[in-house]
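Thread: 4-hydroxy-3-methylbut-2-en-1-yl diphosphate synthase (flavodoxin), structure

OP (GT): Posting the sequence first so everyone is looking at the same thing. Length is 417 residues per the record. Can we get the structure tokens written out before standup tomorrow? I want them in the notebook alongside the other entries.
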Amino acid sequence: MTGYQSSPLPRRRSVGVDVGGVTVGGGAPVVVQSMTNTDTADVDGTVAQVAALAKAGSEIVRITVDRDESAAAVPRIRERLERLGLDVPLVGDFHYIGHKLLADHPACAEALAKYRINPGNVGFKEKKDRQFGAIVETAIRYGKPVRIGVNWGSLDQELLTALMDENQAAGAPLTADEVTREAIVRSALLSAQAAEEIGLPRDRIILSAKVSRVQDLVAVYTALAGRSDHALHLGLTEAGMGSKGIVASSAAMGILLQQGIGDTIRVSLTPEPNGDRTREVQVAQELLQTMGFRQFVPVVAACPGCGRTTSTVFQELAQNIQADLRRNMPLWRDKYPGVEELKVAVMGCIVNGPGESKHADIGISLPGTGETPSAPVFIDGRKAATLRGADIAAEFEKMVADYIEARFGQGGRQAAE
């Protein structure tokens, strides 16, 4: 797994699940996953987006399988990705007719690394148990794990009604929200129990319970974690767009992760029109990295700016360095093992600039308003150079590249050994 950083925080003990070579739960690092928004029947478009998500760092990618054309496309997508050298596991997202699609398209059932079932719409009334069982039996036949994904937007209404009636008969000790939360948790647990009774091993079951309000998510997963040792997939559904979606997802999942709850996460951002789908991967990585659970890309420390930093030089340099590091990481992960641990500082004035730069592996303290037009550069805690003139930014970027080669390149690794 990429750049796992041991955390001193205790993790909830869960059963490990192998999803196409990626371990979810069982003490493994928290896994980042995402989902395409292409028409899966569009092989070219889906391959391109899966590849982009995988290169951005998504360790599992979910795709919609909603009709015959999309099911027929799955093995072709898998084959194309393998030709590109991408072995990222693909998860099939099934609703309503998943049992039929898996039965009619065995190549799809084989090509997928995991099936996602929503117990709220896998079937209704007398068909529910039969169709749920058919998907589980297919998973058993092909040796695939299953995510039982409850969503409050499509919650099993029979179960919810029964629990509401029970609560009313008991004098309504619980609020409607509390009963709904219990229905979500119970739907996941009962479905997992049913899958195990059919014969699906416990180490092939992942549970999720998606809601769209922060406090509901915290309450539901806290209850679920306390009543089960299944691996858990975290995500705030319908989180929203832009900063709203980022803040809501980070707040909800941050609380749970801090409590040791969660084995794999997805940040469900609504993209801007024609926006970059990989943004949700970047946010998930940054959440885990900020909390100290994983390390994906080098850290760039930069000051927020104040009246001492009226120039935009340090802002532009920090932006360029960060963009360059993230852009190169897909190649650098193999070429420079350990480079994700790098710490760079780009500071804007003398107040905290030298000190912060000394704490980084390589850092620069740019001149603030009214300061001497020079920029000391610190490498491994020691002053290594002083840059001046119009090319400070370009010179520092080159120094960062040289430092990466010297420390993480083959020569640097041999010297360390």
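GT: Both are above now. Quick notes for whoever picks this up: Residues 1-8 have pLDDT under 50 and may be disordered. The first strand starts at residue 17 and ends at 19.
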